[in-house]
Each structure stands twice: as structure tokens, then as C-alpha cells.
Q: What sequence folds into this?
């Protein structure tokens, strides 16, 4: 068999929508897919060749995945580190970046060590540090985001403090001394931006066009691409993404969420996987973030990520499904994830709206709902 086809089967740890879209990209390239996920009929299992139904922490299931696959990736960063270490020999992304991005405090330290700005923050790892933060908050800040250091996403594990009463409520009702938190200054930012960067083992890197992101209730609502910022900001974001990818010796995909404050960029969060804000690439770029991720973890040459059309990506949540129809999506690109239960706030799919300009995309979006 030719060496270029030495990788036949890709394992995916996690069976959600990101795994599904990875699998679809990989199958178009001729790979077989094995997914490990505890949920029956999860989105990725619907398109995979084999579903190992087990907990992510199940050591025997991880070893089965290891034996079944030639290369392994993951679709979410809260993979148990013990499982990642079992899989490490076939996990090009490794466990080090997971260890960094699973903890907001480690993540911020890593970003700052690479020379980039974050929001000002204080660690709250024990009751003593909570007291230090409390005094600092009462004296200095009008608004602070207090986030669990581990496990939070889409606003989960986050608390907004704007007064002494908010602080008191957090301490009395929500604070858990066994957890670590990060207290971040609320920034007065101009825009939220993100960049998706991919890198393979040979050191080849590519950065997708910069997205401008708009959130509702701390969940991504829409991504506008290209972002409506000056060209030098686009270049600044791409340069930052390349430096972080090199500094962390990335293999795979890294999403970098940023705040634009005047002319300065502050890094908000890192996600070592394809990202919601990169879904536009499925229809608006020559190579999608999912194909590029597969290329990167298989150490294949990276694809051209040139954007061929302006795009607005609109997230579809559980509450949207009651009024959405395929007909209502019209000519636009509808992607549904195959989830059985449409709960409020749950990501069920997205629509990529492609027009001749961002202004036309936004006008078309208004007609969908």
C-alpha cells in the first residue's frame, strides 16, 4: 500500500457536532471513522463506521480506540487527561495543550508567557485568595467576571459581579472552596474577534480569515466574516495566531478568542480544536476548518483557506427549532447536527449566509427569523 495511505482509520474522542463535522470531512477524504462517546445515537456516531459507546474515562474503551485506529483526535478540550495519556502515542495533539487549556489560570499564564495580553485577572484558588480578591474588587472594579478555572463553556460556571451584594451572594450561594476560580476585569472592548489556526507536524501553518463574533446570553449568536475591522487588525490577529501556534508547538487546530480594545488585542480564551466561530469555513472557504484539522493531525499538506464569499454564520439553538424549516432557510447553507432533543440554549445547527457583501448577508439573516 502506498505510504500516503498508511493512515486508514481516524479515532475521534467525543461524538458531538464538532466530531460529526470532522468525520464528514475525513470520510470525504476516504478515511474510516471510529468515535468514542457515551451517548447512544450521538451526532458523530450517525456518520461514523464504528461507535465505541463508553465513558471518556473508561480505560479499556480508550485502549480499544487505540488498537482500532491509526491516528486519534478529540472534539472537546475537557477530555480526561488520563485518557489522553493512554492515547498519546497516536494522538498528535498530545496532552500538554489540553492540560493548559483545561485550566483558565494556566491558559492565561501561557498566553502572557508568550508575550500577549489578557484581561487583568486575579486567581481565586482558596478562601485566602477569595479574601484578597474581595478587597480588591470592592476598592477597584465596577464589573468583574468570576469564572470557574475548569469546565466552563457557553457561560456555564460564570458569575457577573457588579456590587457588594453580588459578591455576598456569590460567597454565600455559589462559592465552592474545592474549586479554583479566575476573577477577570470586565473589559470595555470594541469587538470580539477570533482566529482559527492549524499546524501540522512538519510545522506548516495556516490561519483562517478573522471572524467578528456577536454573543447573546454568553452563547455565540453570529460570526461575521471577514470581520469589520481595519486591514492592519486582520494582519495583527493572524500574526498573533501564528506566534501562539508556534510557541505552543501546536499540532491540529487552535481557536483563539480575542477582545479588540482600541488598537490592542487581548486574548480571552484558547480552544485546541475546531470552533463554533469557524463554521463559516464549511461554505465560504476553499478548505473548511474540519478538513484542515484532519489534514493537520494526519500530517498532510494543509489546504488553501482563501475565503471565496462574505459570510454570516447564524447559530441555531433549541428554541429556534420551533420556528425553523428547511424552506425558511431558503438558498442559504443549513447545517443540522442530528441532535434528538432541542433544549433552550443547546446548539442544534447553524446557517451560513453567503452574499456579495456583509451588508447583504445581514439583510438576508433578518428574513430567516
A:
Amino acid at each position: 500500500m502506498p505510504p500516503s495511505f498508511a493512515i486508514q482509520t481516524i479515532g475521534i474522542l467525543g461524538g458531538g457536532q464538532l466530531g460529526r463535522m470532522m468525520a464528514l470531512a475525513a470520510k470525504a477524504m476516504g478515511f474510516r471513522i471510529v468515535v468514542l462517546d457515551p451517548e447512544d445515537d450521538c451526532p458523530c456516531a450517525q456518520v461514523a463506521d464504528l461507535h465505541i459507546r463508553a465513558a471518556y474515562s473508561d480505560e479499556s474503551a480508550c485502549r480499544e480506540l487505540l488498537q482500532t485506529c491509526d491516528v486519534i483526535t478529540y472534539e472537546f478540550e475537557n477530555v480526561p487527561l488520563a485518557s489522553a495519556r493512554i492515547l498519546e502515542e497516536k494522538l498528535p495533539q498530545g496532552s500538554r495543550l489540553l492540560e493548559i487549556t483545561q485550566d483558565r489560570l494556566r491558559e492565561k499564564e501561557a498566553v502572557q508567557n508568550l508575550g500577549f495580553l489578557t484581561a487583568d485577572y486575579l486567581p481565586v484558588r482558596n478562601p485566602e485568595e477569595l479574601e484578597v480578591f474581595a478587597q480588591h474588587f470592592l476598592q477597584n472594579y465596577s464589573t468583574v467576571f468570576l469564572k470557574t478555572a475548569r469546565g466552563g463553556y457557553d457561560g456555564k460556571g460564570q458569575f457577573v459581579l457588579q456590587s457588594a451584594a453580588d459578591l455576598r451572594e456569590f460567597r454565600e450561594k455559589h462559592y465552592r472552596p474545592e474549586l479554583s476560580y479566575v476573577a477577570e476585569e470586565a473589559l470595555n472592548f470594541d469587538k470580539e474577534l477570533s482566529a482559527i489556526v492549524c499546524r501540522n507536524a512538519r510545522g506548516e501553518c495556516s490561519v483562517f480569515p478573522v471572524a467578528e463574533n456577536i454573543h447573546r446570553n454568553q452563547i455565540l449568536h453570529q460570526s461575521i466574516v471577514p470581520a469589520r475591522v481595519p486591514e492592519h487588525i486582520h494582519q495583527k490577529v493572524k500574526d498573533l495566531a501564528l506566534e501562539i501556534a508556534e510557541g505552543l508547538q501546536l499540532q491540529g487546530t487552535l481557536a483563539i478568542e480575542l477582545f479588540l480594545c482600541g488598537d490592542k488585542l487581548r486574548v480571552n480564551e484558547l480552544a485546541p480544536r475546531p470552533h463554533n466561530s469557524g463554521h463559516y469555513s464549511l461554505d465560504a472557504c476553499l478548505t473548511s476548518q474540519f478538513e484542515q484539522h484532519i489534514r493537520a493531525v494526519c500530517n498532510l499538506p494543509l489546504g488553501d483557506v482563501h475565503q471565496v464569499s462574505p459570510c454570516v454564520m447564524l447559530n441555531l439553538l433549541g428554541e429556534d427549532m420551533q420556528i425553523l424549516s428547511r424552506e425558511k432557510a431558503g438558498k442559504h447553507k443549513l447545517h443540522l447536527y442530528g441532535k434528538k432533543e432541542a433544549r433552550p440554549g443547546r446548539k442544534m445547527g447553524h446557517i451560513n449566509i453567503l452574499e456579495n457583501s456583509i451588508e447583504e448577508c445581514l439583510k438576508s439573516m433578518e428574513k430567516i427569523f
